[in-house]
Amino acid sequence: MNESKASVYAARFDRVLDHIEQHLDEPLGVEQLCQLANFSRFHFHRQFADYIGITVARYILLLRFRQAAYRLAFDHSAKIIDIALDAGFETPESFTRAFGKTFGQTPSAFRKAPDWDAWHAVYRFRLPERNTIVQVDIVDFETTRIAVKEHRGPTEKLNHAVGEFIAWRKESGLSPKDSHRTFGIAYDNPDTTPPAEFRFDIAGEIKTEVPANAQGIVMKTIPGGRCAKVRHYGSHSRIGESIYPLYRQWLPSSGAELRDFPLYFHYLNLLPETSEADLVTDIYLPLK
């Protein structure tokens, strides 16, 4: 398959994947998905499995489970029966069986002590990088004090730090998510950094000092200055598709020089109350 035909084929699958992500709370029939990209219904299951590495039914189930897992871990006010129904299951019992079979933990056990390592292992299927056209704006970012939970180690452990930061935020009341911005600071590229050396900060805007706390939250500052800003729409797991064009295409042609501060994210809305398809994240690349 030559490059142009391959890109057309990939674009057809992108339409299918985008539709699935944006309509997870609705019935998703194979006939409908085939029509979106003009695929033969007879061959679609084989084509999808060859392209992604799992069946279309499994892919849809895992995306629904991912949203359910975030709600279980990060929103303890959500009832398991409601999470089950929202994931497309008719009863909490069928949800519990399927969830346990997939992740090795019941929903209740996952809520109490999520095994994120086992959870991440389930999501190691092929997900081809999509071609993303980004709009780059040059902005001035004001110096911002932040409360930070530092993560050091494999990305599979990152959600542990997220959970601790959320717990501190709720307990302290010092950085309420509805009135204070939420950030992520990416010191390293997970694709090129040894897992044990990967660094990432989960942060919330703060107006006061941060007292000693059980979660190990510390104070830092995002320095003010010029930045290239790109807005990313959709899952945080695909944010690289908006970052790579910034580095590979815009930066070399812009003549801009980078400042000595890492790339960072401003999360305009958050999981689990926002579905992955509706997430909006501003990416900031600090410039001299």
Automatic annotation (TrEMBL):
Sequence ranges assigned to domain HTH araC/xylS-type in this UniProt record: 14-113
Keywords in alphabetical order: DNA-binding, Transcription, Transcription regulation
Entry superkingdom: Bacteria
Pfam families from the UniProt entry: GyrI-like, HTH_18
Species, as recorded: Propionivibrio dicarboxylicus
InterPro entries, sorted: AraC_E-bd, GyrI-like, Homeodomain-like_sf, HTH_AraC, Reg_factor_effector_dom_sf, SmbC-like, Tscrpt_reg_AraC-type_HTH
Name of the protein in its database record: Transcriptional regulator, AraC family
One of the record's GO molecular function terms: sequence-specific DNA binding
